């Protein structure tokens, strides 16, 4: 066995209590009984929650905020904050995918009693100044396997008017409890299943080609990648593959734990203008540049990929990237991008917006105009 290299100093902090596995949502029945609960979800989520044999029986006093749309907008969330302001809650339950989680975290930050700031734009501009005490406890129950937002301290909100992605980030936004119950993802339609699964796989890789990578995030990313490589091709042909759903749910959770430490990197940075301008779903927009990025990393700085390959019993980083390419080919990604993306010049025109502060500098390679152009030309035309 090859001797390991000594690690540079690293740290890890994630305070979320995690429950994973089929049926694990049952713990909420005892944990939240007789709570005054704000449930943040979509219209579809409310129907699923109410019909669920375990969640529908919750003996809590529930107030609903069930108008979350995908890519939740500043104005819509502000309207919900204004509507609910003055009501008292014991806890907030986020039920859904990344959008419901992001909306719930943001609303909690503005609705926690004793915190003065109800104006989202002000809150986002300086969360450290406004979030001066612990927030209401957030229980994050995921119904998709993608963002890992149930274990991260970030929330993405969109300024749709200006086609800009905003981020609220604070250690106070960590949920207290995350419930990742793969049974809740059964029945998710094909497009949402593939897009969110690609987001999960992408986030695992983003934590590997990342300046903040640590030995622990690499271990979790390696397992997330192994699970996603098995799950994605299986779900692409059979949405009712329950093992596939369980694999990708765990992959998503592990990738979320990874990015809660490393944050995301270049693919996310490049994805935001694709979503804001062309409406490409988040997971597809992130996966769009993945192959090109993997090949750039392979050429310039393959150590992280090589470590993941070794942890998964593969010969080297090249075989890991080959597997990634073949997994991507099992999805509708290329066909979808070919029909949904505009011509090269319209994508190149967004290049300056693809350097997202807080994302792009996490990438292990220096990002410049040439690198971004090469990635766009390889994957986005
Ligand atoms: Fe993501």
SSE blueprint and pairings:
Blueprint: E1 17-20, H1 27-31, E2 36-40, H2 43-51, E3 61-65, H3 74-84, E4 91-96, H4 98-111, H5 120-125, H6 127-130, E5 138-142, E6 154-159, E7 164-169, E8 177-180, H7 190-208, H8 215-237, H9 242-262, H10 266-278, H11 282-287, H12 290-300, H13 303-311, H14 317-329, H15 333-340, H16 344-348, H17 369-379
Parallel strand pairs: 1-8, 2-3, 2-4, 4-5, 5-8
Antiparallel strand pairs: 6-7
Fe (ii) ion (FE2) binds at residues 147, 199, 203, 268, 282, 286.
CATH class of the largest domain: Mainly Alpha
Please identify which CATH superfamily of the largest domain we are dealing with: Dehydroquinate synthase-like - alpha domain
Tell me the CATH architecture of the largest domain.
Answer: Up-down Bundle
Bin the helical content: 40-55%
- Please count the helical segments: 17
User: How large is the radius of gyration?
Assistant: 20 Å
Main β sheet profile: 6 strands, parallel
The chain-level structural class is alpha/beta
Number of domains: 2
| CATH topology type of the largest domain | Dehydroquinate synthase-like, alpha domain
State the total count of DSSP E strands: 8
Shape by Cα distribution: globular
Which molecules are bound in this entry? fe (ii) ion
Averaged pLDDT: 93
How are helices and strands ordered from N to C? EHEHEHEHHHEEEEHHHHHHHHHHH
Q: Could you give the distance between the termini? A: 43 Å
């Amino acid at each position: 066995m090859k001797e390991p290299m000594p690690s540079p100093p690293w740290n890890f902090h994630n305070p979320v209590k995690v429950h994973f596995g089929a049926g694990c949502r049952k713990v909420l029945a005892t944990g939240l009984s007789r709570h005054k609960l704000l449930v943040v979800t979509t219209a579809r989520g409310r129907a699923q929650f109410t019909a669920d044999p375990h969640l529908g029986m919750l003996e809590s006093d529930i107030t609903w905020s069930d108008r979350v749309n995908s890519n939740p907008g500043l104005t819509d969330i502000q309207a919900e904050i204004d509507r609910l302001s003055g009501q008292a809650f014991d806890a907030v339950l986020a039920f859904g995918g990344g959008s419901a989680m992001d909306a719930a975290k943001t609303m909690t930050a503005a609705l926690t009693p004793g915190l003065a700031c109800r104006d989202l734009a002000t809150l986002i501009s300086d969360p450290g100044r406004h979030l001066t005490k612990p927030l209401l406890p957030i229980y994050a129950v995921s119904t998709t396997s993608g963002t890992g937002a149930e274990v991260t301290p970030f929330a993405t909100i969109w300024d749709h008017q200006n086609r800009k992605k905003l981020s609220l980030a604070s250690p106070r936004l960590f949920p207290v409890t995350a419930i990742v119950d793969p049974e809740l993802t059964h029945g998710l339609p094909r497009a949402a299943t593939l897009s969110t699964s690609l987001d999960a796989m992408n986030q695992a890789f983003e934590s590997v080609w990342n300046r903040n990578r640590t030995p622990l995030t690499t271990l979790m990313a390696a397992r997330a990648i192994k699970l996603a490589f098995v799950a994605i091709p299986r779900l692409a042909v059979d949405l009712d593959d329950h093992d596939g759903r369980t694999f990708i749910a765990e992959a998503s959770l592990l990738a979320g734990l990874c990015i809660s430490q490393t944050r995301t990197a270049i693919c996310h940075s490049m994805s935001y203008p694709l979503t804001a301008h062309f409406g490409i779903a988040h997971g597809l927009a992130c996966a769009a540049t993945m192959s090109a990025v993997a090949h750039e990393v392979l050429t310039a700085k393959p150590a992280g990929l090589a470590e993941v390959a070794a942890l998964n019993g593969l010969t080297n980083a090249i075989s890991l990237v080959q597997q990634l390419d073949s997994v991507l080919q099992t999805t509708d990604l290329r066909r979808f991008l070919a029909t949904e993306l505009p011509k090269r010049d319209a994508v190149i025109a967004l290049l300056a917006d693809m350097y997202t502060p807080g994302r792009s500098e996490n990438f292990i390679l220096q990002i410049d105009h040439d690198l971004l152009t090469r990635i766009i030309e390889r994957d986005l035309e």
